[in-house]
Amino acid sequence: MKKLFIDTNIVLDLLVKREPFYEEAAKLFSLGDRKKVILLVSSLTFANTNYILSKINSSMVARDILTKFKVLVTVVELNDKIIELSLNDKSFSDFEDGLQYYSAIENDADMIITRNFKDFKSSKIPVITAQTYLTE
After folding, report:
1. To the nearest whole percent, how much of the chain has pLDDT over 90?
2. 54 is in which domain, residue-wise?
3. CB under 8 Å to 130, separation ≥6 — which residues?
4. Which of 32, 101, 111, 127 has its CA 20 to 30 A from that of 118?
5. Residue 85 maps to which CATH number?
6. How many domains are contained in the chain?
7. What pLDDT, on the 0 to 100 scale, is given for residue 136?
8. Which pLDDT belongs to residue 118?
9. Looking at residue 127, what is its pLDDT?
């Protein structure tokens, strides 16, 4: 079964229902719900998503949304090794993208699903959009 590392922007597409990306995000997460793929997200994604959801909703509503979302994904830890690798890899101008990338690598993800290609230029694993994955 494929292990897909899901970047925060795709999670937000689903949970905030961002158009025009919501439908493809919903289809992708539906594959995880039906156990067709394993969906990995970083613990950092939960923190960042909670922050954004709490700006839109109350903190309790944000927590309820994340509680329901949690059943669809496997949360991977952010650890000392991942932080060290990210700090030392200057190919990532955005530190958070480095954390996401090394979280994917350390957890044997087959690919990264994102809309943010430019920040993963030096990736050793495929980086594609949800739409591209769904049409392959």
Report:
1. 90
2. 3-135
3. 10, 13, 21, 24, 25, 27, 28, 113, 115
4. 32
5. 3.40.50.1010
6. 1
7. 80
8. 84
9. 96
Distance CA 135, CA 122 (A): 24
Residue 128 belongs to what H/E stretch? Answer: strand 127-128
SS (H, E, C) 8-75: HHHHHHHHCCCCCCHHHHHHHHHHHHCCCCEEEEEHHHHHHHHHHHHHHCCHHHHHHHHHHHHCCCEE
Q: List the structure tokens of 110.
A: 């087959």
Q: What is the pLDDT of residue 58?
A: 94
**pTM score over 0.90:** yes
45-52: long-range pairs with CB below 8 Å, 24+: 45/6, 45/7, 45/8, 45/11, 45/100, 46/70, 46/75, 48/8, 48/96, 49/8, 49/11, 49/12, 49/15, 52/12, 52/16
Q: Encode pLDDT of 11-51 as tens digits.
A: 999 999 999 999 999 999 999 999 999 999 999 999 999 99
**Using CA atoms, how far apart are residues 133 and 136, in angstroms rounded to an integer?**
5
Report how far residue 79's alpha carbon sits from residue 30's, in angstroms, rounded to the nearest whole number.
29
**Residues 26 and 84: beta-carbon distance below 8 Å:** no
